[in-house]
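A note on notation is needed here, since sequence and fold are reported together in a single record. The reader may check this reading against the record printed directly beneath this paragraph.
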Amino acid sequence: MLATLALAAILVGPPDPAQGTWWKGNLHTHTLWSDGDDYPEMVVDWYKSRGYHFLALSDHNVLSQGERWFDLSGSRGKGAVLEKYLARFGDAWVQTRVDGGKVQVRLRTLPEMKAIFDEPGRFLMIQSEEISAHHGDKPIHVNATNIQELIPPKQGTSVLDTMQKNVDAVNEQRTRTGVPMFPHINHPNFVWAITAEELMHLEGEKFFEVYNGHPAVHNYGDATHAGMERVWDIILTKRLAELKKDVMYGIAVDDAHNYHQNHMSKANPGRGWVMVRSKKLHAHDLVHAMEDGNFYATSGVTLNDIRFEGRTLSVAVRPERGVTYKTFFIGTRRGYDSSSKPVLGPNNEPLGVTMQYSADIGQVLATVEGASPKYTLKGDEIYVRARVVSSKPKSNPYAEGETEVAWVQPVVGRR
C-alpha cells in the first residue's frame, strides 16, 4: 500500500537540527585490494583530506582482512605510486618483502586503517564489499554497506534471480547478526546488464545507483537504452502503483579506481556522493537514515535543507556566487498511460533492454529557478522527486559538458 503524505514527511525528515547533521560520504570505492590503482591508505587519505565524513572501501569479492601481500611485478602499485605512498606514510608503516624474487607490499587491513583514520564526529570508515556476480556475459554487482562477513557471489538462473540471491544474502546476514546493513544495486547500465523491468521486481532492496562516476556505466543511456533517471521513474511508478512494492532511492557514487590521472576516460574519485542526515556519524545511524530516505545524492550541488510539510516539498540550495540553479520536480500522476512496447532491433526483433513507456511516467511537474524551489502536491501524484541542476561545470566531469546536480529522494503521494 502506498504511504500517506504524513509518512512521506517522515521519510524526508524535518529541518529541525535535532534531527541530525549532513554527513558527506562515498559508498563505492576501489583500491589495490581488488582493481583500484592505489594503496588503501592513500585512497582513504584522499577522501578524508577533502572533507568527506565517511567512506566505504568496496573492493570486489573481498574484505580488507587478513595478511595480503601485493605483487609489484604487474603494472599497479610500483614506481611513482609506491614513492608517493612511502612519502606520505613512511618506511616504518610501509611493509615490503622479496618473495620468489618479486618485491611485494603488504596491504593494510580495515582495522589498521580505522586506527589511524577514524575520528569520532569527523571521519568514519565503513566495511563494504562489491559482491560481483554475473549471469552469462552480464555483470551483476551488488554493494553491501556495513557488511560484517564476506559474501561470495551467488549465481542465479536469470539476471533478476542473480540480483535477488545476492540481495537476499546481505539481508540474511543482517537478520542473523543483528547489525544494520543494506545492499544496493550498482551501475545497472554497465554492459547494459540490468533493465528497469528486472529492477522493479526486486524484493528487499531499496537502493540503486542513479549516478556513477565510472566512464563505462552509461548513466545517460543512448538511443536504444534508457538512462538511469528514466529507469528510476519507471521503477518508481511500477513498484508503487502496480506492484505494491517499496520506494527505491537513488544513490550517487564515484566508483573510483584511478587516482593518478584525472580524465573523463578514468574512474576518478570525487564525481558523486551522498549527503546523509543523521544524529551521529555512526554506521548504524547512517544506515537507518538512508533507509528512511533521509539523504540526497549529488555530483556537486550542496543543499542546506530538504523538507516535506503538509503537501509541499521544498529544497534549500546552498548557493555559490555566480552560479544559477534550476530545479525540476518530477513525478507520475495517477491515471497515467501504463502501456509499454519493446525496443526493436534492425530486423524488428525485440531487444532485451528496458521497454519504452509513455511520457506520462516521470513527467516534469514543475520547473523552478533559484535557490529556494518548492512544489505543492496536487493530490494525484504517485511520487514526486526533485533534480537540482546548477550552471557550474564539474571540475572533473564524467561526460563532456556535465554540470553539478543534486537528486532529492522521492516522496510518496497519497493513494
Notes: The longest strand covers residues 381-393. The chain has two domains: 5-68+107-412, 69-106. The CA atoms of residues 90 and 274 lie 32 Å apart. The mean pLDDT is 95.
